[in-house]
Structures are given as structure tokens and as C-alpha cells.
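Journal club prep — side note

Before the paper discussion, L.F. wants everyone to see what a predicted structure for a comparable chain looks like in C-alpha cell form. Sequence:
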Amino acid sequence: MLPFEQLLLLAIIVVSTTLYVTNWLPTEVTAISVVVALMATGLLEPGEALSGFSSTATITVAAMFVLSAGLMRTGALEVATIYLGRFAKGSARRLLLLLALVEVPASAFMNNTPVVVMMIPVVVSLCRQYNMRPSKFLLPVSYFAVLGGTVTLLGTSTNILVAELYRKSGGPGFGLFDFTVLGLIYSIIGGAFIIFVGQRLLPNYSPLASLMSGRSHSTYVTELVANSDSKIIGRLVTDVFEHIALNDRPQPPQPIRRHRRLHHQRARVESNEQGSTVTLLEVLRDGRSYQADMLQRLALAHQDILVVSGTPKDIHLFQQTHQLQLASVIEDEERTPTTEIEEQVMEAVVMPGSEMVGSTVSQAQLHRRFGVKVMGLQHQGSQQVQGLRAQKLEVGDVLLLRGKTVGLRTAAETCRLLLVEGVENSLVRKTKNTTALLIMGLVVLLASFTGIPIVVLALAGAATMVVTRCLRIDEAIGSLEASTLMLLVGTIPIGVAMESTGLVDTVVNGLLAVGGSASPQLFLALFYIITALLTELISNNAVAVLLTPVAISLAATLDISAMPLLVALLFGASAAFMTPFGYQTNAIVMGPGGYKFIDYMRIGAPLQLIMVVVATIFIPLFWPF
């Protein structure tokens, strides 16, 4: 039986982990609750429980967010990325190779999220230019960034965190380039799999609105209302639409449910009248949804709502031909009709740290604040049509927005939304890109050749970004990802409590009981696998905090160096390939790529197996036991 203190700490870990995974509470609230619980239960003194706020790891990560934002805001990578199309020449494999060559070194010194954010519009623009599907490239964009994050200490916040925890335990920590050779091997092997094998495993479909900056060919989901003047009243669906693709089984009318996912294959009806092509998804009448076989016998009536998808041009033509009313935009609390189909339409991806995460569409008040209307939503690879106003938003969700350019861009900056469009339209301070690169270069050089702590250099670099006007002060503050920083604040004291209560020793004894007298290499492989699997479920930073003291204690018990196990922890914590929520960049590309959960498993599982083998073979070669 475990001692009461360990049981109490385990309960806090289980509850907080559940909250982090389910997102029932905002990450910031959960993190503060953990700190309060550790103090209230007496597991830690107030100074220890609040140690996450003063940790050099937290401060360094915050400074790196500002440095990365400076590089992003000035378009420092644009010089490299605008030539991708020229050299790719329409070849998917060549484009993937060029993406890897740009992203891996960029992610080695920048936070992964800004790198992926910068690359999404580039990839979308190139896909439009060469008639390729973004779904073939956007997940590799995330994976290349993840792989590149293993090349240097600055690559991810997890690297910085583990190095700090190791130093606090009495170890030497890690230098900037201590695991660069292994990181390059890791990136080359993983990148080769993605380019030559993974590309075949990726899906070939479009997301909510084809994600092209040229709107004349994009499609989106909207609603048309049959008013009293409509020409379709009294006509059968089959008279209005020529082709119907049905499900295998007929379905009775279904009551409308909130948050119900709508798939195109349930009821697909195409209209080719007047040269237009509009897809009918369902008919809504008196609170009921008519789909599939029921549409064959359905006569359309006054106030019927037709849920359709198509290009703006086709929908406009269909609307005018049949005298229908467009009524799909959401002005905060209410649906409001509009007749301006030619207004500017953009997809916007909800980014980590967005104020909209956890809020409903109506609570965001986009129309009141920015004059922006919500036309549709894609959530976890599925288009949401019903319950839009009550749909809670998550990272990676794609909103289809309509509004004036100024309003759209203001909403994007204020609410941390990524407008998916061509890189040529991005707002960057190009005159400052050389300055931003110089600042980042000096931070790296001084960290490499002097004994100045990384935290000092990162803070100085962040301040210089603002002083030189690469960033405004509000942009610097806005670049701080509160959820990531507060996660560190909430998890760092958990590691302290694990050691003070003896929970670390209990876990180590359990591992020894499982492993018995196995070789250290087997323990290393086991440790990597445990880390990688946990990272697929919870934050890599949380995994690092929980397992770093376990790695150090296990190494002491086995009488081996802690370095191999800690490196396995670093690389395993970055190996989040199999789920969209294992790494936040995976979630960001989910909406733009139209990915579903199975897509991550299809390519991520074999990639994960390859990385386990690579880590098990190469780590002991560079860091002997």
C-alpha cells in the first residue's frame, strides 16, 4: 500500500492529467488549481509550489516565443520559402524534400508553432499553383517541424525544461548542440520515410473550402432558405437536383442535434441547372433533418432550409435562379440573411493561445467586434452545420469567415487566428527581416561560444526584438502562449512533489520489477516507448516533468549514466506522430488539411516504430551507459 502522501499526489496527477487531456477547464485554470492543491494539502511549501513561476525554463521558453514571433512578423523565412515552388517544379516529392530542408534547420532554433504557421500559407499557395492537394503536405509540415526540434537545445520548450531539471538535480545539463548529431540522424531517417513512403499514406482530399487563396474555385457549406417567392416550393428534390448519391439504408427524419457531425456521403444531390454545380447535404424542416433516401420523396416547402455546398459563384447562381435566400452567416447570437455572396471569404484556423479556445462561436462576438460573420466550421476533420452558435472551439478548428479585409485581419491578430491564404498577401515587416535574423544569430552564437546562460541571452534577444521594432510591445506580449507557460507553472512543482514524497522511488522500483535484470539498452527502449506513448496523450512538457526525476533515479539505481535515459526522454517527448493532440502543430494542420484521426495513425504509427529503433541503436553510441 502506498503512503498517504503518495496516494494524494497520484490523485492530483490523475485529475490534472484528465483535465489537460479533456480540456474541460482551460489549461491555465487547471495549472493554477494544481499549484493551489499542492499548497493546500501540505505536499509542498508555498515557495516550492510557486517555483514554476520563477523557473529559468519558464522564462527561457517565454523569451523564445518572443524571438520566434520576431522572425515570423518580419517574414525572415520568406526569402527561403518563396523559392520552393520554383525548385519543386510541380513535383510532390521534390516539394516535400525542400520543405524538410527549410523546416528542420528553422525548427532547430525557433519554436515549432511559428514555423508551421508560416509554412501553411506557403504550402496552400503552392498547392493552388500546381493543382495539388494540401492534405498531401500539411501533416509532413508538422512532422518536419517536430523532427527539427530535436536538433538543438532551443528546438522545443521540452528540451529547455529537461536541461533545467537535470541541472537542478546536480547534473551538468545540456549544451546548445549536445544532441545535434543525433537530431540530424533522427531528422534524416524520419524525413526520408515521410518523403518516400509516408506521402503515399497521406489522404487525398480537400478540407472545408479547398483552402486556396483564389476564392473563385473554393467550396464551402452554407444554408439557403426557401422564402415565399421561391420557385422550388412544391417541387420534389429530384426535380430541382439531377443526381442523388444515397446511403445503403434509408433513414427516417432525424431531430437536429447540437454538435452533430455532418458528412457529405449521407446525402449528396447535385444540381446542374443553369450550368451550376451545388451539392445538397440535407433539408431542415420544423426542427427535423431529412437526408439520404428521404430526399427522393420529399417535396420542398416554404421555410425549408437547404444545406448545400459549392463555390460562391455556383451558390450565387443557384440562389438567384430559384429565388432563395442565403442565411448561413452568424452575426454573434443570430443568423442573419445576406445577399452579398461576393464578399471576401477566408478560412481561419484557431491557434494555440487563442482567446476563442473553449468559447462558443456566439461568445466570440466576431461580428460585434470586427464586423466578421461566421459561415461554417470544420471540427476534427468534419464540417459542422448544426449548432454552430453553440459549438465550442478547439485548437485547429477552421472557421469560414466573411467580412472586409480590415476586419478579417484585425480579428486574426486579436484572436490569434491563422488566415489561410497565399504567402504573398501576408502582412510582414520585410525591412526588418535582416535585423531579426541578426538578433537570433547573435543569441545562437553567444550561446555556443560563451558561458552566458541561455535564459540571459534569450531575454536580451527578446528585448532587442522590441527595441529594434521588429515587434511592437503588444505583439511581443501576444506571442506568449499562456497555455504553454502556465502548463510549465503547474507541472514543474509536480516534479518537486514526486521527489519529496518518494513517488519517484516507487515508480523506479516498479520499472525494475518489470525489467528485472534486463540490459540497460532494454530499459532505454522501454523508457523511450513509455515517453512517446504518454506524449501522444498529454503535453510533452508534462511528460518531461513527470519522467525526468524517474530517469535520473533509475540511472542511479542501475549504476549507469543518466544521459542516455534523459536523451531518450527528450527525443521520445518530441515523437508525437500518431494523434492530432499529441503535439500542438499536429492540431494546427488538422483543419487546413481536412485530416481525420485515422490519418495520423496511418502514417504516424510506422514512423513511431522507426524512431524507436533509431533511438535504441544510436543513443548508446553517443552516450554510453
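L.F.'s comment for the group: The longest helix spans residues 597-622. Keep this in mind when we get to the figures.
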